From TrEMBL:
Pfam families: BLUF, Guanylate_cyc
Every BLUF domain range: 1-93
InterPro entries according to UniProt: A/G_cyclase (IPR001054), Acylphosphatase-like_dom_sf (IPR036046), Adenylyl/Guanylyl_Cyclase_3/4 (IPR050697), BLUF_domain (IPR007024), Nucleotide_cyclase (IPR029787)
Keywords of the record: Cell projection, Cilium, Flagellum, Repeat
GO biological process, one term: cyclic nucleotide biosynthetic process
Protein name: Adenylate/guanylate cyclase
Subcellular location: Cell projection, Cilium, Flagellum
Subunit note: Heterotetramer of two alpha and two beta subunits.
Cross-referenced SUPFAM superfamilies: Acylphosphatase/BLUF domain-like, Nucleotide cyclase
Annotated Guanylate cyclase domain residues: 151-279
């Protein structure tokens, strides 16, 4: 048998009669399927423990994931191969903690609130795949590396070291916030996954079948940064906020890397390294979005496609054909030395003040 514990939030406030109806239906379905458990409701939170035959429990949990009365579903624990039920007498015991004044209930309320808050925090820090696996009732710690086809996107702020040296910590953090809001939003709106933030950049990835969306995300990062630069006066460091983007498609190894002490869910492989190196090319040419032939295998050639020439990446014996997309906002209109000099003036002005 299997036991599963999850927590979720109500999509809307539920009346007492609706909670009772959920409990009654659960008793009926669980009796039919041989499941037992308990359901706590408090402060718009569901906390439920289910146990029973694995196939029946998996079907029940799949229904819960699709139930529009739930949101932010988070699987807290999965126990496989259990032999003894903890709630064998309850097809589904429903407990409404809001209505109980028992002093023993108060710590349970506190615990559920803490779990809900922890879930909210974990969502912001944990990899999407790990959260998705937990939501499905899987154990991410048991995952092994797998091979998949991905399109990798690397982005990095130009002259971030000069920014950090020339600005106050508050101003530099504001600049990072502007960049990350744009970059994260552009990736996620186009269906990508942000894998990691690197301090002044990010790594993201897309399914190979969504390569056109990866390119759209790269273009959108540049367009939104152009809007920021245009609207900011020359006295604002955001006027000089540029970022390069490199993209590459190919086979990767995906999954857990690390040790028993610390795991990181990440992607490994030549395509990952190539995307990072292609992003570096944007420092040597005016175009901001750089990619190679691997992308063109997955998309129709855009009308704005422009071949930049051949590039020999570090560690490669053959030259790569590199490309960009030619929009007004996907090129720099300032050289790197001039950009650094303009940013450095903020330090001079600060020292003079």
């Amino acid at each position: 048998m299997k036991r599963l514990t999850y927590i979720s939030s109500f999509t809307r406030p539920l009346m007492a009669s609706e909670v009772e109806e959920i409990g009654a239906r659960s008793v009926k379905n669980n009796t039919r399927d041989g499941l037992t458990g308990v359901l706590f409701c408090f402060n718009n939170i569901f906390y439920q423990i289910l146990e029973g035959p694995e196939d029946a429990l998996n079907r029940c949990y799949a229904r819960i994931l699709k139930d529009n009365r739930h949101k932010d579903i988070f699987c807290l624990e999965v126990e496989n191969n259990i032999t003894v039920r903890q709630f064998g007498d309850w097809a589904m015991k429903t407990v409404r903690l809001d209505e109980s004044s028992d002093s023993l209930i108060r710590p349970i309320r506190t615990m559920l609130n803490s779990l809900a808050r922890t879930h909210y925090v974990l969502e912001r820090y944990s990899p999407f795949e790990v959260l998705q696996g937990l939501q499905k009732g899987e154990d991410p710690l048991a995952w092994v590396l797998k091979t998949s086809e991905k399109t990798i996107l690397f982005s990095d702020i130009f002259s971030s070291t000069t920014f950090a040296e020339s600005l106050s910590s508050t101003e530099f953090e504001r600049l990072l916030g502007i960049y990350y809001d744009i970059a994260n939003r552009s990736v996620m709106e186009n269906g990508g996954t942000v894998s990691k933030l690197t301090g002044d950049g990010l790594m993201a990835y897309f399914k190979a079948s969504d390569t056109v969306h990866a390119l759209s995300a790269a273009i959108e990062i540049c367009r939104r940064l152009e809007d920021v630069r245009t609207s900011a006066p020359a006295s604002d460091p955001a006027h000089y906020l540029y970022a390069g983007v490199g993209l590459c498609s190919g086979q990767v190894r995906e999954g857990n890397i690390g040790s028993a002490a610390k795991f990181d869910y990440t992607l490994l492989g030549d395509s990952v390294n190539s995307a990072a190196r292609l992003e570096g090319v944007s420092r040597k040419v005016n175009p901001l979005v750089i990619f190679d032939d691997s992308l063109l295998k997955h998309i129709d050639k855009p009308s704005t496609l422009k071949k930049l020439g051949l590039y020999q990446a570090k560690g490669k014996t053959e030259n790569l054909s590199v490309y960009t997309v030619d929009y007004p906002y996907t090129s720099r209109n300032i050289t790197i030395p001039d950009l650094k000099a303009a940013i450095a003036k903020f330090r001079t002005a600060s020292s003079a003040a």
